[in-house]
Predict the structure of Signal recognition particle protein.
Amino acid sequence: MFENLSERLGGVFDRLTKQGALSDDDIKTALREVRVALLEADVSLPVARDFIKAISDKAAGQAVTKSITPGQQVVKIVHDELVHVLAGDNDNAGELKIDNAPAPILMVGLQGSGKTTTTAKLAKRLKEKQGKRVLMASLDVQRPAAQEQLAVLGTQIGVDTLPIVKGQSAVDIAKRAKQQATMGGYDVYMLDTAGRLHIDEVLMDEVQSVRDIANPRETLLVVDGLTGQDAVNVAEEFDSKVGVSGVVLTRMDGDGRGGAALSMRAVTGKPIKFVGLGEKMDALEEFHPERVAGRILGMGDIVSLVEKAQETIEAEQAERMMKRFQKGQFNMNDLKQQLEQMLKMGGMEGIMGMMPGMGKMKKQVEDAGFDDSILKRQIALINSMTKRERANPKLLQASRKKRIARGAGLEVSELNKLMKMHRQMADMMKKMGKMGKGGMLKKAMG
Ligand code: GDP
């Protein structure tokens, strides 16, 4: 999967990583090529646009380091952004809500998307990986032999299917499945609804009625990953009509354009839970954004190289600071680094939690109404000071203070507070520095 996109991006990044120093133009050109590659892979235009914007913003704010080339850094940024686009903020791929037996899972999708196959693959997985007792039922009374197809798969994987009763409607079958699942002590029952060639009102109504009877814990939409942008449209339609809790992308074993995966999460907001990777019953995988991003880029080595380099940089920075503090040096640049570090470490909450003996101060800080937006404002204030002022805050006169505050769009009183805090911290740092390397400071900076 993703061969084409991967090759295209690979080419762009190969050129990039071979260069020692990158100009803005190099990055611009590379990003333009990335954008074209995304669009050709059928990633939707707004998604591609946001993607490029996020990357250029992050690339602009990168710290320059010796151990890796800027091109390698860009690859890492693209990788992280791919993961973000694929995963959204917090998904648990492959996790299904199937507590409270019997838990109903409703399977929906267009005809030929791989719905029946996926139903059986998933049942097998639940049985083998989670030891669940699963009952499958086909509600497809339109397509001849659809119910028999599921029964055959059931026999093959050793999962029960609801006995076929000719002439029943989908709603009747759903009721019967629910009853049988309850009486038979099943953990999960899966309803494989009738496929349709395209979104069709009558069949949608039917799915809605089935949904209302079963009250599914999960409604999984099965879409053919090869259909690209169409897959995303289908997902939006189904979600608006019946509500979808997750997506299964099938045929990701083919060398399709793969853009559906990239747009799916961003456009529909629905998590991809599984991917189908073949016709065999065990060709179903949890969806791992990291793995997929790695496959798209084909640059796993660079990604881990950059991660390591970044850790080293942070350790070196911490070491340098330690030395300064031990000498009793703590200027506005140091404070700024500390504030930035605090934001990175999860804000006030995070850092206070990590510093032993900070409980009391934490309470004071909270009582004073201190939150992370203050950190950002303080950084802005320091940014509007000159180099000399940062190195030696004592230089600041009233007129300069006014201008600095205005430069940051803030009041002088905020600047005064910042300066007071700096003095207090400088005192504290001096004391802590004397406590030696293994002291609180080292711990606080991780
Ligand atoms: P339904 O009409 O949505 O129920 O589709 P089926 O489950 O009958 O699948 C249609 C065809 O697609 C069958 O030949 C399946 O074997 C095939 N198929 C399903 N999932 C995958 C997949 O992930 N990869 C590949 N290569 N084929 C698949």
Summary: The chain has 20 helices and eight strands. Residues 64 and 292 are 28 Å apart (CA to CA).
